[in-house]
Recover the amino acids of this structure.
């Protein structure tokens, strides 16, 4: 196992440290709470000559992604960071980055979308971009976010993929929360990242190419199909990179983080930092003899549909916790619930658990163990009676 | 550096080759050809969505023999800036050879005056060595002739049509070249394709300025301005002869130089009457607009003369 | 020549075109209603037509104009309009006086 150094860092500093070790050729970023600390920390590295990065302090998030596109096409490593309204503002070019097949890595510090204006954590920003063609990975802790950022570069640049990667963490909760983080030794991190060798570049003046050509209706469809093809190859790459990283650090990464799932009869499915809270609830309930488990998905795009169905084999009832609403979806459900249900329908062979959705934590509303315990009791009841009841419920909402 | 056509023509392969889909007589490609042929160094071009972009890059065809990128409508400047930043980074780190590449961003007036103003401003403020060329055909032509802030007073466009009550566009036009000059960047200029030596020289000067640069070029549009396709150069010439489109340069926001002063300043109607988009102004009901236009042109001309110390 | 029927597996990903300047393979000459004809004997090779042609359709070799690229000339007429040289003898094709370059209806030519 590689050397490492232990530090007390918050999520933002963890990302900044990963960026320091990655030493991207260009970073173009714009401040927005709660991502600002990522870029602030990184700026200090630039100012101290610790990195070789050309740091472009753009005038908006749309400009940030635009500059990233130009820089990435010019054949180097490019990173950026944003949140919430910033991600929303760059929506147009987020799609462009993915469809131009540019391996940009973006740290997204999850924050609610307006209106009303809210600077706190929920997943409406990254969930809103789930169809953009990016790989989406969620990190529960500052440690995971650090680890995910390093792996994201390897995943994005894989020659079979060339798909940009969004690496999420919960705003304020993880972003501003100080934890014990193990950083890889700089040289080891550098070796793991490797060098980026693009097959072609905008700067190749001897072999000029045209990037971002205009498609009529006779080619657009084919180009989109290619994107699906690339994303279909992403999961094995994510797994392989995660295993390699595991050998290096002792911290293995895959698609899920399952907890007490082996003989679970009921399960909670939740992304990101709330999984930590859920884990304590599951542990406590297990001590009471309840056969409950937890699945924390790490990868949301591509959606691990088959893997989910397999992991939920034998489970009778599932509580999905969604930190965003897909407005207008059936009964106001959230995206994780919707995709999981689709997966169970597609691959479940008519079997599979009863699933209910709990919307929680919007706009940074705190979620306490008692809420999750309530959800656990609900699904225990559903498992026992076979009666699903309300499809979509709320945790922590004043009703 | 003296520009001799005989030395430039056929000297190296055309950087913008035929087979693009621009309208017959479109001045945009005339302007681009003059610029890219005048520049010696290797270039990378970022282009905003618009006539030139769609006509020259119909997948799987391309008319470009230089590295070229399009990403979106408003961000040609920033896309070029990103590439330029990467270039500097990679050269500085010794990862690539320094081939003295120059970065151009090209956009129409819609992309430049309106939707992309912020992106250009930011790029210039940060000092990226990007030369921004505005192909000014005074409307959103690619989407079928809609008004932009570059459209002159009284012009008919589909979103500022000449009607029975309202005679075309109600606002004068945004003084964009002055706004760019106010960024105090090394080189800003206005040019016209009819004075090719001036335009080509300006392209070379923009390169030599070795910093952010901006050239606003009037680009007659046979389709949108309603004139014969053969007249594009003549219409550009008359715009300059009437002082509607003066040719000048500004260095660092402070040194203003007039490049051409017509021996005899012609009335702006000489230019207006060449184009169908102003036809409705030559009626008793709306001829007052002609006076307003002349007053505006004169006001700006006088102001420019004063700035240039003429 | 690019493959216009490429399947999704064959098409270049991300809309990148690696064959620089391949649009020369796309014929725009069919757009014309008129074509420019140059009196080669009286042309002074001043290159004004070259600098004003929107379609790079004035072919120049070794400092001399050798002809028009009729595969791509769209017949806009700018070259004829801007040509600064008046013929001293009647134009070798049209027999008219006027400029060295004159526009002639496309119907007079093969393939119409």
């Amino acid at each position: 196992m590689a050397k490492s150094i232990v530090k007390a860092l918050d999520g933002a500093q963890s990302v900044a440290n990963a960026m320091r070790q990655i030493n991207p050729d260009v970073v173009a970023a714009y401040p927005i709470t709660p991502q600002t600390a990522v870029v602030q920390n990184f700026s200090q590295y630039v100012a101290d000559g610790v990195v070789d990065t050309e740091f472009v302090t753009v005038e908006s998030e749309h400009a940030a992604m635009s500059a990233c596109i130009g820089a990435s096409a010019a054949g180097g490593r490019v990173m950026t960071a944003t949140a919430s309204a910033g991600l929303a503002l760059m929506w147009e070019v987020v799609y462009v980055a993915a469809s131009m097949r540019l391996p940009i890595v973006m740290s997204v510090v999850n924050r609610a979308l307006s209106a009303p204006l809210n600077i706190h954590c929920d997943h409406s920003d990254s969930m809103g971009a789930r169809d953009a063609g990016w790989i989406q990975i969620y990190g529960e802790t500052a440690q995971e976010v650090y680890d995910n950022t390093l792996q994201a570069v390897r995943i994005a640049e894989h020659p079979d993929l060339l798909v940009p990667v969004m690496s999420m963490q919960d705003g304020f909760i993880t972003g501003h929360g100080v934890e014990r983080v193990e950083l890889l030794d700089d040289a080891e991190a550098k070796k793991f990242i490797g060098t980026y060798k693009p097959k072609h570049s905008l700067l190749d003046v001897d072999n000029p190419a045209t990037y971002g050509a205009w498609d009529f209706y006779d080619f657009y469809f084919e180009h989109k199909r290619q994107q699906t093809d690339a994303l279909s190859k992403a999961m094995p790459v994510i797994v392989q990179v995660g295993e390699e990283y595991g050998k290096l650090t002792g911290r293995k990464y895959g698609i899920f983080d399952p907890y007490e799932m082996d003989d679970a009869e009921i399960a909670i499915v939740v992304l990101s930092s709330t999984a930590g809270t859920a884990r304590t609830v599951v542990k406590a309930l297990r001590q009471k003899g309840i056969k409950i488990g937890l699945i924390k998905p790490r990868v949301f795009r591509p959606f691990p549909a088959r893997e989910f169905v397999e992991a939920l084999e034998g489970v009778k009832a599932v509580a999905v916790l969604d930190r965003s609403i897909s407005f207008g979806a059936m009964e106001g459900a959230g995206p994780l619930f919707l995709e999981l249900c689709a997966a169970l329908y597609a691959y479940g062979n008519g079997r599979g658990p009863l699933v209910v959705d709990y919307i929680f934590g919007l706009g940074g509303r705190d979620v306490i163990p008692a809420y999750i315990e309530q959800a656990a009791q609900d699904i225990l009841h559903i498992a026992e009676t076979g009666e699903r009841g309300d499809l979509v419920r709320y945790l922590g909402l004043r009703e | 550096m003296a520009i001799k056509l005989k030395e430039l023509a056929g000297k190296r392969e055309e950087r913008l080759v035929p087979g693009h889909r621009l309208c017959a007589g479109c001045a945009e490609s005339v302007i681009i050809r003059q610029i890219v042929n005048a520049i010696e160094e290797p270039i990378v071009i970022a282009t905003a969505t618009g006539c030139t972009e769609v006509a020259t890059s119909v997948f799987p065809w391309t008319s470009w023999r230089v590295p070229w990128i399009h990403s979106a409508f408003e961000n040609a400047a920033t896309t070029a800036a990103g590439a330029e930043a990467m270039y500097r980074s990679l050269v500085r780190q010794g990862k690539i050879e320094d081939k003295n590449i120059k970065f151009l961003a090209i956009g129409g007036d819609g992309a430049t005056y309106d939707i992309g103003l912020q992106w250009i401003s930011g790029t210039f403020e940060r000092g990226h060595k990007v030369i921004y060329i505005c192909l000014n055909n005074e409307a959103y032509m690619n989407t079928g002739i809609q008004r932009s802030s570059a459209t002159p007073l009284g012009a008919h466009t589909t979103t500022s049509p000449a009607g029975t009550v309202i005679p075309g566009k109600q606002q004068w036009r945004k003084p964009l070249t002055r706004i760019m000059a106010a960024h105090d960047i090394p080189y800003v200029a206005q040019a016209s394709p009819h004075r090719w030596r001036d335009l080509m020289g300006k392209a070379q000067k923009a390169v030599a300025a070795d910093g952010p640069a901006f050239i606003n070029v009037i680009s007659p549009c046979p389709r949108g301005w309603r004139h014969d396709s053969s007249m594009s150069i003549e219409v550009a010439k008359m715009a300059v002869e009437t002082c509607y489109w003066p040719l000048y340069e500004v260095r660092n926001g402070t040194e203003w130089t007039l490049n051409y002063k017509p021996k005899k300043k012609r009335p702006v109607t000489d230019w207006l009457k060449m184009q169908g988009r102003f036809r409705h102004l030559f009626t008793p009901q709306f001829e007052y607009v002609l006076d307003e236009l002349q007053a505006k042109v004169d006001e700006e001309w006088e102001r420019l003369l004063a700035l240039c110390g003429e | 020549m690019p493959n216009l029927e490429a399947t999704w597996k064959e098409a270049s990903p991300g809309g990148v075109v690696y064959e620089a300047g391949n649009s020369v393979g796309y014929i725009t000459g069919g757009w014309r209603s008129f074509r420019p004809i140059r009196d080669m004997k009286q042309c002074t090779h001043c290159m004004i037509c070259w600098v004003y042609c929107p379609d790079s359709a004035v072919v120049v070799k070794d400092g001399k104009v050798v002809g028009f690229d009729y595969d791509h000339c769209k017949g806009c007429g700018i070259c004829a309009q801007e040509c600064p040289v008046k013929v001293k003898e009647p134009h070798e094709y049209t027999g008219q006086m006027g400029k060295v370059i004159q526009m002639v209806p496309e119907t007079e030519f093969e393939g119409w």
